[in-house]
Design brief:
mainly alpha
Length: 242
């Protein structure tokens, strides 16, 4: 091994050890659990809000379509149990209860965004001194944009299936939906790193972390799906929380 390779490995080791050291010192394990659980809990009110929006325009089935689009990008072993519970939640709601449930669901869904903000602020070691109203409004805007995007995509899928001339391309629409959903996840991740925290590094130092997050996300999803499929009985261990 020549000197250049040794120097490169040394620098890589410094970067990895420094990153892990900061991750451990800044309660990264606790933050990871907080973000994961908050995102999962925010998924249900998000879909309830989508159902309320879809119902208000006379397309209650769009909420189920949005759920299918979201879970299509997940490993089947992970998405299956959650999807079953989502179907229990997405029941038609009418009248004044629709308005109340939509407002509550919108607020609760924004908690998932707030969890990501907290983790990013901790990662960048900044104190967020912006007003509580501004931060919550920003999180709600994130949810509204996500709702609009998913409803439009789901509506296009339904429209494609309803038009006879487009029926032969139904499979293409399905794959396109998965691709677009994945792209939305990437865009949302990048925007979250740029907009949500109170401070951040300049872009040249920011994008490696975004890429590392995506790569680690994909690898961990594959490993977890493999673990569940081969070694674990999640339902027996965690019952309804599996």
């Amino acid at each position: 091994m020549n000197g250049a390779e040794t120097s490169l490995l040394h620098r890589a080791w410094i970067v990895v050890s420094d990153a892990f050291g900061h991750f451990n010192a800044d309660d990264g394990w606790a933050m990871a659990s907080h973000v994961a659980l908050s995102a999962l809990m925010a998924l249900f009110p998000f879909l309830i809000f989508v159902a309320a929006v879809a119902g208000s325009i006379g397309e209650e089935g769009l909420a189920n379509r949005v759920a299918e689009m979201i879970f299509a990008a997940w490993p089947a072993e992970v998405a299956g149990p959650i999807a079953a519970e989502v179907k229990r939640v997405l029941v038609p709601v009418h009248g004044s209860l629709l308005t109340v449930s939509a407002v509550v669901a919108l607020y609760l869904a924004s908690n998932g965004v707030e969890a990501v903000r907290t983790a990013l602020n901790r990662a960048y070691r900044v104190v967020d001194r912006r007003s509580l109203v501004f931060r919550r409004a920003q999180s709600i805007v994130f949810v509204l944009i996500g709702t609009g995007g998913f409803v439009i995509l789901a509506g296009l899928g339904v429209l494609g299936a309803a038009i006879p001339a487009l029926v032969p391309f139904e499979t293409t629409f399905a794959y396109a939906g998965i691709i677009v959903t994945s792209v939305l996840v990437v865009v949302a991740l990048v925007v979250a790193h740029v907009v949500l925290p109170a401070g951040r590094p300049p872009w040249p130092k920011l994008w490696p972390g975004v890429v590392a997050t995506l790569v680690a996300w994909l690898i961990s999803a594959w490993v977890f799906a493999f673990y569940v499929r081969r070694f674990s009985n999640m339902a027996a261990t965690y019952a309804g929380l599996a």
